[in-house]
Amino acid sequence: MLALEQLKKIYSFISPVLDIAIIAFVLYKAYELLHKTNGIQILKTAFLVGVFYLFAKVLQLNTILWILNIIAPGLLVCFVIVFQPELRKIILKLGQKEWLTFGHRLKHTHVDAVLIAADQLSKMKRGMLAVFIRHTKMDDYIDTGTRLDANLSSALLYTIFSHDTPLHDAACFIQGGKIIAAGCFLPLSEQFDIKKTFGTRHRAALGLAEQTDAVVLVVSEETGAISLAYDSKLHYDLSITELTKTLEELLEINSDSQIIEDTVDESRITS
Hints:
By secondary structure, the chain is of the alpha+beta class. It is 51% helix and 13% strand. Strands 2-4-3-1-5-6-7 form a 7-stranded mixed beta sheet, with helices on both faces.
């Protein structure tokens, strides 16, 4: 009995902290879910309706209150219909076990979208040159190509680089979830100790890495090797795991990064 009483006393001290911790966790995860979908619009709408109702209550606008009480069920149904896509995304995310973790790596960021395309092009030995913009302005290089300002997807990258189109042999510029431009020309490296086997793509990737802080991904048309150029160095023939880790570190991608939903299904890409 004495031990039970002591446990009760200990729990009485712990329970407020546990209570606050659980509430904080739920609120944090609710914010994450709403922030990663368009669910924040749901909160805004609900807040406005609540404010309007409170306004009517405080001013004793009985007719408005009566009308609101009558149409409340209908408003709820309309609310669910209008925000059905957002509610569906939230419910789907609740069904994923990852939502219970903090700071985990998001799948389907813009890095994943690029690497899916790069991996497929590598298997086909089709060249690719993709520039990830960091801090240095790239307007001078972007202006040499064709502006796209298109939503980033593996399918679009695959289309640009897998066919002999005017945009195929040059570079594309990527920032966040956008392909800013394609068909852009890069400066060639002036280093003398580059392997003679490296072609124009590798020299262009290294050339830009020498002059800016950009990270350049290049797929060799001869060997299919995927490499990264940054900080005036070329890191040749990296695995997908190495590429993912390096890009996420260099581009400072974390759990708050934008999700790219339109990544291509690898099984649907054929040579």
